[in-house]
Design a protein that fits this description.
Length: 488
Amino acid sequence: MQRCLVTSHDRAQLFAKHFGFCLLGRRPTPVPSPIHGPLVRLRNTPISEHPAPEHHPTSRRRLRACHECDWVMALPPLQPGQQACCIRCGGVLAKRNSLPVQRCLALAVSASIALIAAISFPFIRFSVRGIGNQIEVTQTATEMLAQHQPIVALMVLMAVFVLPALYLMAAIWVQISLLLPHRLPWSRTIARMLGHITPWMMADVFIVGTMVSLIKIAGLAEVSLGVSFWAFIAYALLLLATTLSLDSDWLWFSLSGGEPSAPEGIHTGATAASQNLAGCHTCGLIGRLDEHGHGSCERCGEKLHARKPRSLQYSWALLLTAAVLYIPANLYPIMYTTSLGSSDPNTIIGGVIYLASHGSWPVAIVIFVASVLVPIGKMLALAWLCLVAPRAPGMRSSTRTRLYRLTEFIGRWSMVDVFVVAILTALIRAGALMSVSPGPAALAFACVVILTMVAAMCFDPRLLWDEVSSAKIKGSDASIYDNQGRTP
């Protein structure tokens, strides 16, 4: 993220000149307009009733506890395009976007329109020897259901269509709520939902699966791309841009009309758990815990814990289950290919060998990395982190934290092979001449991907930093704040 060269005041004046209101929390300045009634009221409504946290008229410094290492710090003032990172582990604490409401709202509306177009027109068409088939993108889920794979069909439907649509509607609802003088009902509950949905949206992974499928069948049949194909690419890119444009720190500050006072006697340059505190993973606010190490966030209502309850036990159980399922996922066929009346089973490794032997090395490498290296590497990495977390705290914790971030990021990309099976099953339906049907390994492999993702979410990276002496953190401060966040 780059530093913006235009000051907030200059940007506010330019925006006020063209649109009739300012960004710095002053009263709106209406421009003459022949429009009257509700339209002019909406036009003259300020972007938000609350300015960015940096411009709020208070001397209180806003405190945060890092979600990955539990270090307590005071957030510095941020300009648009800047982000605040933890001085201990490098994790991102907050970021600031310019025009956060307008940008997120525009992208969410655009992504919604692209999604409607993607499900309304033909997606892909193929023909071979005069026999062809044309599908819509939603048939990738419905056809798996027709092939007696209801769980895989549900995974495809939720990850590609339902959850992204819910996310976009929630983002639109919250941003419109910020534009209005009074907040819409359930705005905070819907805002909490945004962070929980984000890891499960896989429209971008579906695009990669579509590209792999097209390369697989390009030499066997004539393929044509419909309007839905291009609309879906636009939808996936806009959805990604929407998630990146969401400024959660500014969002919660604006929804709540400010930030509640920090608990009394907080020390920066120390862990939150050592002070019987915890940082909220949803809105970032620091809250006081009870004698059992539990609590709830004062601002968003999310549950707070000093450490995730039974983090290692849950991670181990999910990893072992995924490891057991990974055996049939590789031994059994992931799909059956029928050509001229002859049916051939294809395993994951068999498909990689087939693609490599026919010269499709790029596709073979993508499938091998996504379906073999990533699942195995993620399970081994998480197992190693679970082993070292309670036994060797403080030893190369920063490196292990970066490994955890990597495993959490790459896990969802293993769904490429599942999406390839879903796309080919729906598209290639030419009877005995040429057809594809899912195998038993499709369900096992999809469960492996989901279980490893949940295992990574259950693991608490703060365990990697427990019992680290604050003396090892160079340049850290050790100030104490009163209940207003000020140094005595």
